[in-house]
């Protein structure tokens, strides 16, 4: 992965990905370091494969670091989708859907999706960034909500008000019962589950996170944490994945992922 980061060419085949068998069908999860070089040299490299609406969003960042992370993330996501769909990355058009903007959206924010020659690419996607690391989870199915993924760092949950802002009363009680050393990881895993869940349900953060149970009695089809080492992520990361609808299982997705290992 590091090798590709120096060339600007992010290689799907070299990045870490796993297949998660779930009751909602197999989910593919990809993770790694964002290839910052993909976002260098405007008009070249990764920029060349993005849509005008994505480039407009990139330009709007006032922080160079944020702009680079945004572009690199879009490049990674598009290359993975292109590989799975058997298309060229530059041939895909982004077709994001935003619950709040509806038809007024720019097609480049909200729930990710792509078109190929006007037809939706039949993949559900959820993308998350934490510092310069990314997580991308994909399942077969028509794009839109239904799938959520979140990447968090345990270090981001250590501020004083975290428990009051982020946890339900049952969760606050539970974290207080844990040994001190285990609390940061538990908090990060719990937060990652909540974020994944609200992404999957399309609720966004309009819902107060302190009212969302990360460990509900009646779970959606999938709501789980993935151990960071399985995805080649540093040990202080937490990964949450949620899927709330049944997704059909079709061979092409797994077939493409299998080929991608060679
Ligand atoms: Zn919007």
Which terms would index this structure?
262 residues; alpha+beta; Ribosomal Protein L22, Chain A; 3-stranded antiparallel β-sheet; 10 strands; globular; disordered N terminus; disordered C terminus; binds zinc ion
Write the layout of secondary structure elements.
Elements: H1 2-7, E1 16-20, E2 27-33, H2 52-60, H3 64-85, E3 92-94, E4 114-116, E5 119-120, E6 123-130, E7 133-140, E8 147-153, H4 162-166, H5 169-177, H6 183-201, E9 222-226, E10 237-243, H7 251-260
Antiparallel strand pairs: 1-2, 2-7, 3-4, 4-5, 6-7, 8-10, 9-10
The structure holds zinc ion.
Summarize it.
With 262 residues, this protein is of the alpha+beta class. It has helices spanning 2-7, 52-60, 64-85, 162-166, 169-177, 183-201, 251-260, and strands spanning 16-20, 27-33, 92-94, 114-116, 119-120, 123-130, 133-140, 147-153, 222-226, 237-243.
């Amino acid at each position: 992965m590091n090798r590709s980061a120096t060339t600007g060419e992010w290689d799907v085949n070299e990045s870490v990905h796993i297949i998660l068998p779930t009751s909602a069908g197999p989910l593919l999860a990809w993770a790694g370091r964002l290839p910052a070089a993909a976002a260098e040299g405007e008009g070249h490299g990764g920029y060349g494969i993005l849509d005008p609406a994505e480039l407009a969003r990139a330009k709007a960042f006032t922080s160079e670091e944020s702009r680079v992370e945004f572009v690199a993330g879009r490049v990674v996501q598009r290359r993975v989708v292109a590989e799975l769909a058997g298309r060229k990355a530059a041939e895909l058009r982004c077709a994001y859907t935003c619950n709040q903007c509806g038809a007024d959206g720019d097609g480049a924010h909200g729930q990710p999706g792509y078109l190929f020659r006007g037809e939706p690419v039949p993949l559900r996607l959820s993308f998350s960034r934490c510092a310069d690391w990314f997580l991308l989870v994909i399942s077969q199915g028509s794009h839109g909500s239904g799938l959520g993924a979140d990447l968090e760092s345990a270090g981001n949950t250590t501020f004083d008000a975290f428990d009051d802002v982020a946890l339900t009363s049952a969760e606050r009680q539970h974290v207080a019962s844990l040994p001190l050393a285990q609390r940061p990881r538990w908090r990060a895993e719990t937060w990652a589950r909540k974020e994944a869940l609200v992404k999957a349900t399309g609720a966004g953060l309009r819902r107060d996170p302190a009212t969302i149970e990360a460990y509900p009695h009646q779970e959606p089809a999938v709501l789980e944490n993935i151990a960071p080492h399985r995805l080649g992520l540093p040990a202080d990361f937490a990964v949450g994945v949620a899927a709330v609808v049944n997704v059909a299982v079709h061979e092409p997705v797994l077939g493409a992922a299998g080929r991608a290992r060679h």
